[in-house]
């Protein structure tokens, strides 16, 4: 069997493509993006191995997550903290993760996800989020890090159109914000899924988040806002828990499925209807409730049939 040629790979087996990165900060470079694509084509996992104290950029974190890849930070899983060992084909779990201190709500980077069907223009949800959270438009985009193209919705539209109907991912960047925009076609609709990290959660006023919810309510299907205690300035440290959700918006499509009264009974600490008639969305916040945010989030997803 002829092994694939993957320039970034240090080791290729039947199950994994292993890339060694001996640096303090590891971004989603063109070489790593290409390695992830090659690994997926061959049915292999991409495993990025770094020193124990390295950090990953948010776009690389998403690249590994979506490709079912792994971050090998020293001898541990960088995302979940448990020890890893080489079994001859790949790094595998070799024990339990140590107990982690409880995350501090509101610490680390703000984390935002917006899912929109048939947006008015390419990248519209990216613009909505960045203007609400930073007061500035996006700065650029690219197929890898660092981004190389100045922000242009026309150029983005051309990039996506040339590659349709395949799903397309691009890195997007703004003032203190980094993330990924994914465009795909689902049941005949163009779906934009943007995930952003930053600014620091403690620097964003509640008014900015409320403005984001109000603006996104017009077009979004789903908006999730949280804070990740293990990510600062868009860089993920090893072994820290996942993001803590702060609020979620369910768009008009999901509200219409069961009616406005059902939406108003959403099991959250704070519930607000946005819009009117067939354009009604519901914004739910988790602050002010003794129940853990994850429990409230799970209950909301179940309430709207999204679990």
Give a short overview.
Pfam families: DUF6177 (PF19674). This protein is an alpha+beta fold and 307 residues long.
Describe this protein's structure:
- With 307 residues, this protein is an alpha+beta fold.
- It has two domains: 11-93, no CATH class; 109-303, no CATH class.
- It contains eight helices and 21 strands.
- It has helices at 30-41, 58-66, 124-134, 153-163, 206-216, 252-258, 260-264, 293-303, and strands at residues 11-12, 16-20, 25-26, 45-50, 55-57, 70-73, 76-77, 84-86, 91-93, 109-117, 140-142, 149-150, 168-174, 177-186, 189-200, 220-228, 231-232, 235-236, 244-250, 270-274, 281-285.
- Strands 12-11-13-14-15-10-16-19-21-20 form a ten-stranded antiparallel β-sheet, sandwiched between helices.
- A hairpin with a 6-residue loop joins strand 11 and strand 12 (149-150).
- Helix 3 (124-134) packs antiparallel against helix 5 (206-216).
- The protein is globular.
- It starts with 10 loop residues before the first strand and ends with a helix.
- The mean pLDDT is 92.
Strand/helix succession: EEEHEEHEEEEEHEEHEEEHEEEEHHEEH
Cα-to-Cα separation, first versus last residue: 42 Å
Helix count, DSSP H or I runs of 4 or more residues = 8
Strand order of the largest sheet: 12-11-13-14-15-10-16-19-21-20
Pfam families: DUF6177
Please render the helix and strand layout as text.
Elements: E1 11-12, E2 16-20, E3 25-26, H1 30-41, E4 45-50, E5 55-57, H2 58-66, E6 70-73, E7 76-77, E8 84-86, E9 91-93, E10 109-117, H3 124-134, E11 140-142, E12 149-150, H4 153-163, E13 168-174, E14 177-186, E15 189-200, H5 206-216, E16 220-228, E17 231-232, E18 235-236, E19 244-250, H6 252-258, H7 260-264, E20 270-274, E21 281-285, H8 293-303
Pfam families: DUF6177
């Amino acid at each position: 069997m002829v092994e694939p040629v993957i320039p970034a790979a240090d080791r290729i087996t039947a199950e994994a493509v292993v890339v060694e990165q001996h640096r303090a900060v590891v971004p989603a470079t063109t070489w790593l993006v290409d390695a992830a694509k090659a690994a997926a084509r061959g049915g292999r996992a991409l495993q990025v191995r770094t020193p124990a104290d390295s950090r990953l950029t948010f776009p690389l974190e998403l690249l590994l997550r979506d490709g079912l890849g792994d971050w090998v930070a020293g001898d541990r899983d960088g995302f979940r903290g448990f020890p890893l060992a080489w079994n001859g084909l790949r790094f595998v779990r070799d024990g339990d993760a140590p107990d982690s201190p409880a995350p501090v709500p509101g610490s680390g980077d703000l984390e935002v996800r917006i899912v929109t069907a048939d947006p008015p223009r390419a990248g519209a949800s990216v613009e909505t989020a960045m203007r609400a959270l930073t007061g500035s438009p996006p700065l650029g985009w690219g197929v890898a890090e660092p981004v190389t193209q100045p922000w242009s919705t026309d150029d983005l539209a051309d990039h996506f159109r040339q590659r349709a109907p395949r799903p397309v991912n691009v890195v997007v960047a703004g003032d203190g914000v980094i993330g990924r925009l994914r465009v795909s076609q689902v049941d005949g609709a163009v779906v934009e899924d943007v995930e952003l990290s930053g600014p620091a959660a403690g620097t964003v006023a509640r008014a900015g988040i409320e403005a984001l919810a109000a603006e996104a309510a017009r077009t979004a299907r789903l908006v999730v806002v949280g804070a990740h205690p293990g990510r600062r300035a868009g860089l993920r440290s090893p072994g820290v828990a996942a993001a803590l959700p702060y609020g979620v918006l369910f768009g008009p499509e999901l509200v219409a499925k069961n009616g406005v009264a059902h939406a108003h009974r959403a099991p959250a600490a704070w519930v607000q209807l946005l819009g009117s008639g067939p354009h009604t969305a519901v914004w739910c916040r988790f602050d002010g409730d003794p129940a853990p945010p994850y429990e409230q989030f799970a209950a909301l997803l179940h309430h709207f049939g999204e679990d």
